[in-house]
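Q: Hi! First time asking for a complex rather than a single chain. Here are the components, and I think there are two in total. Is that enough to go on?
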Amino acid sequence: MSQDTLDLSQDTQYDLIIKKDRTLAATITCVYMSGDTEMDFSFADYTGATLNVKRDSKSSTTILDFDTDDNSIVLSILNTFQLNKTAAELATLPVGEFLYDMYLKSATHPKRAFLSGKFIIEDRITI
Amino acid sequence: MILRVEDNPKIIIRQDYQPLIYTGTTQYIFVPSGNTQLTQSGGNPDTVVIYSPTGGSATWGLISGTLASQTDLQLALDAKLNITDFNIYTGATSTTLSGLRTDLNTVSGQTASKLETSLFNTYTGTTAPATYLGINALNTYWDSGETVSWVNSQGFLTGVTGYVTTTDFDTYTGTTAPATYLPINALDTYWNSGETVSYVTGLGYLTGVTAAQITGVTDTLYLHSDALDTYWDSGETVSWVNSQGFLTSITAAQITGVTDTLYLHSDALDTYWDSGETTTAINNATSGFITGYTFTQSGATVITEVGNNINIYSPIHVADTWAEVTAKPSWLSGTTLSDFQTGHTHSYSNLTDKPDLSVYTLQSTIDTLTGTTLPATYAPINVTDGYWTSAQTTSYVTGLNYVTASIIDNIWTSAQTTSYVTGLGYLTGVTWNDVSSKPAYLGYVSGLTSAAQTQIDAKLDLDATIVSVTGTTTIDATYKGKIIEASGTFTITLPDSMDTGMRVDIVNVGTGTITIAASTTLQSKDSAVTLANQYGGGSVYHRGSDVWLLVGDLT
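A: Yes, that's all I need. Here is the structure of the assembled complex.
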């Protein structure tokens, strides 16, 4: 009998790549599958979100933070969210492969794991 | 799966399973007995310290333990008088009391048969008890109009009889107050029931009293017609006074000498019709207002005061001039030369000195003269009147400089040419503001369709205006066509509702980073919206519908 792994977490694994020293203003669209039907995820019930990037899971400090409090994350009432950083804010980041996780907040669900994975920061070739 | 964020990817995530929320129920957290901490599983544990439960009401009988351990309660109990000490008190000076009820019953020699409050409140007898309150207990006085039944109804007194009844009181019309009659309050102004006419009259209260309030008044006790305003004014007839309702059933016959015809007051010089003054008819030749004078008949010519008569005589003929004589007076008829030669004030010494009337021109002839030459007998022109009268010739008037005088009137008269008026300098002082509408013959300057200044204001200057910006700015319509020199690190925002085609150039003249943003939509290559390089610049224009497009040295 083969051995299967049951994933009980609610977050989804995606590795993200961004460019260092370039303005980040990206919109990410979120859907989920209900059987064979693609359904829009809804952020309407969520009041905030955070995305933290660390060198590794044991690190006590972050190297990059996104938060709805400073509008670096903007949740729509539909199925998209934005990640915003200015080029200046990304200019001092180290280049490499790091880890991140993203949580959503709501009045009844204060810390809902949403995304996690690697966070890859690439250097720019042409300045 | 690896995603490049700047590509605006679409991702598939797990379905959102929100925690199940039951409404209308109370949430309970159950803690195992004896536990003192709650630990949140997963994530960062939060410590919850659980103290002994509080709230609810303690129930006497269920509280166990030692009373003395509750020190505040014990201290309060210790401060109280011991019940055993109170019951056995017999002295009068001790700090404790006993037999208090007995002591109270014997104070001042009274017995225990004192009137109970409950008995007092329900007393219904007709004889006041010894402690009965006086009827005027509340306000001292039994006021006029307060009947026995009313007083009874106030609860002051119940069951009292022997007084005149309310019914009797209110309907009493006799002239003599009954023995139990309430005194009349002389200070009020109303005729209360039962107050007799003679009584009220004697008090002088009739002023302000209407006839309707008087019962039993006869014509001999007549109200003065000026009861309301003191005076019987001139012109107020009996019928008018009656119509005001001051007095009813009064006829003219009751007022001596007054009829409904218009009468003047016999004392016409003052304002008031005093008592005893009679009326007199106007124009009474013998006893009217103007007495002692008569006027003579029409046609008299001399006024001479003869006693109290004024005679009018014919007017005196004075100050005639020849110019005024247009025809021989009729009264000359039948006169003789001697009438002029002897003593007449306005005659010539004799007829031989009479001027030759034939050399004069009649006034009617002068008025119609149109020639340029004055007639020899032309009357002198009054040069001071300033007017060019009919028959005054041009040469004559010019010689008198009358044209100059007419300039003063500022009127462009007929036949005065433009060159003439211009030559007079009248156009000086006329401004464009005086021109209320454009004359049709002027036309517009080529290309000019409205006020020139308005069209000029709508044009863009050939040389752009440079505006320095050093902090976060939201531009507006005043930035049209301008060059923004930005220095620092901040954001310049492009607003909505600007005119389509509005264009602005933005240059980063500092060493910071300028970010361009739009209120709605900003389009740029690779979504680059930052001027990060010194002296790098961009140009942005409004494409319409709140969409801006940015080009330039962008990162």
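A: The mean pLDDT of chain B is 55. Let me know if you'd like any chain examined more closely.
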